[in-house]
Amino acid sequence: MVSVIPIEVVGMAVPVPGEAPLMLLREPDGARRWLAIMIGYGEAEALVRAREQIAQPRPGTIELLGDVLAAFGQGVAAVELTEVRDGIFYADLVLASGTRVSARPSDAVALGLRQGAPISVAEEVLDVASVQLEVEQEAEGPAADVLDTEAEVARFRAELDGLRPEDFDDL
C-alpha cells in the first residue's frame, strides 16, 4: 500500500513573468516539504477561485464537474497526488463510492478544494520532487504562524527564482 501524506495548497506563483504558473503545495506537519507543480493560467485561475471559494455567475469546468458528480449521487472523498513520471505529475480523484479517476493535479486539487475533500500526496512523490525549507521560529502564537508561513513562502520563491525548465527534466 502506498503511504500518503496530507498536503495543503499554499497558493500560486509565477517565478518568471511569461512562464507557466506554479501551484505551491506544502506538507503541513513533519518535514514541511514543498511541491511546485507547473500548471496553465486557466488552471491557476480555477485553483484560486476554488481556494477562495469565489462564486461565478455561471459554473466553470470545475464547478460543472462537481455538479455532474452530485447529480449522480457522487462527490469527491479525497484527492491524491499519486506519482511523478518524466516530469509530469499525476493525481487521482477518489469518489465517495471508492472509484478512482485519474486527473491532472490542478483539476483534482481545484475540485477537491471546492468539495472540501482532503488532499494528500504519495510519500514517493515528496521524496523525489519536493524541496525542504528550514525556517527559524522567532515568535510564538498565531502571529508566529503567519510569520513562519511568510518566511517559508519567501524562501521557497527565492529558490524557485533560480529554477529553469531544464531542472524538471530529471523528474
From TrEMBL:
InterPro entries: BFN_sf, Bi_nuclease_dom
UniProt-listed Gene3D superfamilies: Bifunctional nuclease domain
PROSITE patterns linked: BFN (PS51658)
Superkingdom of origin: Bacteria
GO molecular function per UniProt: nuclease activity
Residues annotated as domain BFN: 4-133
Alphabetical list of PANTHER family matching this protein: VON HIPPEL-LINDAU DISEASE TUMOR SUPPRESSOR (PTHR15160:SF1), VON HIPPEL-LINDAU PROTEIN (PTHR15160)
Name listed for the protein in its UniProt record: BFN domain-containing protein
Native species: Amycolatopsis pretoriensis
Upper taxonomic lineage: Bacteria, Bacillati, Actinomycetota, Actinomycetes, Pseudonocardiales
